[in-house]
Design goal:
The structure is a homodimer. Chain A is mainly alpha-helical. The first copy, chain A, folds into two domains: about 10-20 and about 490-625, 2-Layer Sandwich (Transcription Regulator spoIIAA); about 75-480, no CATH class. Helices cover about 60% and strands about 5% of the residues of chain A. The first copy, chain A, is built from 29 helices and six strands. At the A-B interface, helix 1, helix 11, helix 12, helix 22 and helix 23 of A face helix 1, helix 12, helix 22, helix 23 and helix 24 of B. Chains A, B: It is found in: Membrane. Chains A, B: Keywords: Membrane, Sulfate transport, Symport, Transmembrane, Transmembrane helix, Transport. Chains A, B: GO terms for molecular function: symporter activity.
């Protein structure tokens, strides 16, 4: 019963498991670190350069991408970039003013934020499509974190804390990029972002009811219930003129979007829309002397470029926790949005963006921004889409936008002070309507209920609780799912596909034949502390469920990428239990890391080398010689 | 270039991927839930019973194991169980008194705790080897959580809070068992427990220096630095008589352990050791009128059985957070120790224990215990080992111990009031010396550096910070590792093993031949949001690193147990990027769940059914017809 299986039949020569000596710890550790932090191996092309000068040049080009694209720049590209830069400027002005309003800071800060950061990004950024600017979700999140009361009570302190939060954001993003921890962004899954964007769009939309109805009193909370309650409890403040103007603007903006959707070539109609709304609004407000008739406008906008703000950074212990919280959460969201969007457009052009490099660029952009009166910037969806459609070729379009913004700040800023708030509300609403991705949500519901749950938890959490809780709940559910993946690895029973040497899941392939006397199992994912009890229970259940007597248990470890001490002991425990029942355990195709650990822990000796095979077919053939033939066939 | 691969050659008939309709959501969900919560499928044997009466009987036997083993009980088994029960009682008395001292509660509570809980376990417990009792680590952890000051200032309140914490522990353990969340215990890995036990042993050993040196003043902290500082700063209190007695006791106890190690049949020598120390100590203290000469003794022990304590449970809001924290942390540790130990001994006898059933038994034991003046009990290592060695056959040995403890409480308790504290310290020290598993730590260091790190973080964390922080740090590191497993799944490049249809890792098998024009990759573990960026980067790097032009990328998904929306989009993105480079992507052997999702999300249509194969060999053969032959062989 206990005799070893003969594994040395001549047909199997050279096909056995490779039991050569395990690699040293440092080699393994080095290769693990490289896989973890440098999956794209960025320095390989650099190290292949023949001489030191070229190496330095390549290294500089790697860290400061402008050195890579500027020498190849030509007039042909400039033509496209100038066009794209002017187009996105026409979007940047109204968006800058609107989103600054969302963040409860002076509108001029929104314009400042579209001047300095684009230059920084043009130097360090690696995406050719990204257009730099402020984003609605983060703007609202900032004001939610600090509380709108503070913005009313002490606007100067509030503004300084926002600069400080921007500085923290920049530092955080830079550090993540430098330490190559881009993988943290990966934990914000596509489903989480879809739900978060949708939920944010809903609450920002509702916030705009204040501007549309011309309300004076309004709640500080952002959740759907409070906002709707606030709107309906102040019915006496509703102004029909304002609402009418708002609806007209909204219809106009939505029609320009519709035109773009029908004829993508007319993208500039939609891009110019917000600017038209602002100009028309200013003109009307100026002509009818709107401020005297109760039309709320943006208010004074000073001429002049960004004043320095480095002296305002406030690291008082009292505010620090709040500042750090705001900085890190908004930094993470802004980064996830910027990287995801940069990547999606790059894919369409078959270009590559480097997540870690982008983080460094975003980080520098926000650090320098926080010194020059800017608040949080990243690569917003709407602007980037317009930039892409306008045919941008390099980050030069950001430089063009920066120059245009400079001209606006130096000469035109006061003009925009007449912009009616209702126009800004209509611009924001129109932008938000495009962010609720119904189709994607429906798609998630059809294909993956768990992803739909993750998406909905973000969507409903943001809508009904608050933005940060919605995000945390959604990410929490995703991480639990990730842990469940490892705690309950899929395993399946294999059968032979007729007339072949293939063994496949018998649940999936009904043609696969169960083999009498054998139980062949395929395990997936690592075997380690979190799932070893499960693996043991599951294997023993398969043996128990087998109607006929089992002689061999074959475990295919091809899918097991690693194993820890607990996992190893579990396999030994299974072997001991099986041996007492007269069943032999055979290991198939252990992978490199797994085999190394099996050898180091003397697992191989305990199981026996002759019970380890490179393929299921080899094992079945070798076992067949030993299968007891006393048992009659059914 | 874009023509499809012909997959319909007659030799491949019936060997293609099975594209039949996906399962319904509810079927998938049901099977997932079953795998998650009932991996051992406990109700299957019950549902197979023919009639209702038998079903009820089986169900009762399942939930209350005593109904299963008591009807088969006989005198032969009783003989062993009585012997084992008496042996563990001789250990229970000194351990009960000692560990109650560690928890800063009256010693009689320790004796009470060995009376009621064993009866409860005998009814509901499923392990034949487990002996119920108090444990050193949890006893110290309780006093650490509540703070020793409270035990001095208001001993009655302190005791009531400990009963309440025991009740919470019981409730928590019962709930986990009932909800089948036994997997939570799995997150305390073997390495964490080894380190935690070792660290606890160190700090408990050092605590005993108080008793050994007969100190009166001592620190309330448990970390190594504070305790050693306290011992050496009170040198004036050191009593050489006490130290001498302590060392003698310790040498005696260690010799009995040594005897047991050399001759396992003499296990009772070691089991009786602590009782001998107590009796000798009592005798000496009584004869020399020790209390008058400054020998510290246990103090008055009243005759009589456990008084009810249900009326003392204290749920005041002021103490509740502390009580819940103590209850849950000690509950988790006690459970992990009890289940792990029960299981290790069961494996030696080829028996099975059911983790979830054990949790329910522990839970009931602690709930009823908290009503009857007992504190936290579980299955401690030392007692269980003695029970096993004494040849116990069923949980009846716990009943015998309970009866013996009853006799002790009714008639002998006052005798033990003379026990000198130095004797108890020696008993605890001797027990702790056995809990530091140097060999296991060295083994971890040799085999798995990461497991060693996890172990050491618990060991050093407990020794130098505190027990709960040590545990949290160690579990935190383990979870990060689990997340890294999923965030950085091992992937490898395959080559053909000569003269076979097997494809294996070329790094592992140097004989495996790289195939010109093909890149064959094997992915492990699920592809989902946390690792999709990595997977994309890694695949593109392999393509980039290939010296020759690549025409086909074959991705073997055998090891990929599931995929989410982000993962699916990543695969599509890779395909789009490759297509622009003229490389075709081929999918090999998608598993059941993965294929279902691929079909639901129309991935299959986007990739093309003709690009999906059941084995690498089939794919290579089919691709060969399409491989451009214009390129000259090197």
């Amino acid at each position: 019963m206990e005799s070893a299986i003969t594994n040395s039949s001549s047909s199997l020569k050279g096909r056995g498991v490779n039991f050569s000596a395990p690699r040293s710890f440092f080699r393994k550790f080095g290769s693990k670190c490289k896989e973890t932090f440098f999956p794209d191996d960025p320095f390989k092309p650099i190290s292949q350069e023949p001489n030191g000068l070229m190496k330095t040049k390549k290294l500089l080009e790697y860290f400061v991408p402008i050195f890579e694209w500027l020498p190849k720049y030509n007039l042909q590209k400039l033509r496209y970039d100038v066009l794209a830069g002017i187009t996105i400027t026409s979007l940047a002005v109204p968006q800058g003013i609107s989103y600054a309003k969302l963040a409860s800071i002076p509108p001029i800060i929104g314009l400042y934020s579209s001047f300095v950061p684009p230059f920084v990004y043009a130097v360090f950024g690696s995406s050719n499509n990204l257009a730099v600017g402020t984003v609605a979700a983060c703007s609202l999140l900032i004001s939610e974190t600090f509380g709108e009361e503070m913005s009313k009570k002490n606007p100067a302190l509030y503004l300084h804390l926002i600069f400080t939060a921007t500085f923290i954001t920049g530092l955080f993003q830079f550090a993540l990029g430098f330490l190559r921890l881009g993988m943290l962004v990966d934990f914000l899954s596509h489903s989480t972002i879809t739900g978060f964007m949708g939920g944010t769009a809903i609450i920002i939309l509702l916030q705009q009811l204040k501007g549309i109805f011309g309300l004076v009193h309004f709640t500080h909370k952002t959740d759907v219930v409070s906002v709707l309650h606030s709107v309906f409890s102040h019915r006496n403040e509703w102004k029909w003129q304002s609402a009418l103007a708002g609806v007209c603007f909204l219809i106009f903006l939505q029609s320009t979007r519709y035109i773009k959707q029908r004829k993508p070539k007319l993208f500039w109609v939609s891009a110019m829309g917000p600017m038209v709304v602002v100009l028309v609004g200013c003109l009307v407000a100026y002509l009818v002397k709107g401020t005297e008739h109760g039309i709320q406008t943006v208010g004074p906008l000073k001429k002049g470029l960004n004043p320095p703000s480095i002296q305002y950074l406030n690291f008082e212990a009292k505010y620090l926790p709040m500042v750090i919280k705001a900085g890190i959460i908004t930094g993470l969201i802004a980064m996830a949005e910027g990287i995801a969007i940069g990547r999606s457009f790059a894919v369409m052009k078959n270009e590559q963006t480097d997540g870690n490099k982008e983080m460094i660029a975003f980080g520098l952009m926000n650090i320098i921004g926080s010194f020059t009166s800017c608040y949080l910037t990243t690569g917003p969806f709407s602007k980037t889409a317009v930039n892409y459609n306008a045919g941008t070729k390099t980050p030069m379009s950001n430089v063009v936008m920066g120059i245009c913004m400079m001209l606006v700040l130096l000469f035109l800023a006061p003009l925009f002070s007449y912009t009616p708030l209702v126009g800004l509300s209509a611009i924001i609403m129109s932008a938000m309507l495009g962010l609720i991705d119904y189709e994607e949500m429906y798609h998630l519901f059809k294909v993956d209920k768990f992803d739909f749950l993750v998406c909905m938890s973000a969507f409903l959490g943001v809508s009904f609780i608050s933005m940060d809780y919605g995000l945390i709940i959604s990410v929490g559910i995703s991480v639990v799912r990730a842990l469940l993946y490892v705690a309950r690895p899929s395993a399946c029973k294999l059968g032979r596909i007729p007339n072949s040497v293939m063994f496949r899941d018998i649940e999936q392939y009904s043609a696969a034949e169960d083999m009498l006397g054998y139980v062949i199992l395929q395990l997936g994912s690592p075997i380690f502390f979190a799932n070893s009890t499960y693996v043991r229970e599951r294997i023993l259940r398969w043996i128990r469920d087998e109607p006929e007597a089992v002689e061999f248990l074959l475990i295919d470890l091809s899918g097991v990428s690693s194993v820890d001490m607990t996992g190893m002991e579990t396999l030994l425990e299974v072997q001991r239990i099986l041996r007492s029942k007269g069943i032999k355990m055979v290991i198939i195709n252990p992978r490199f890391e797994v085999l190394e650990k099996m050898m180091l822990s003397h697992f191989v000796e305990k199981i026996g080398k002759e019970y380890m095979f490179l393929s299921i077919d080899d094992a079945v053939q070798a076992c067949r010689f030993n299968l007891s033939t006393a048992k009659p066939e059914p």
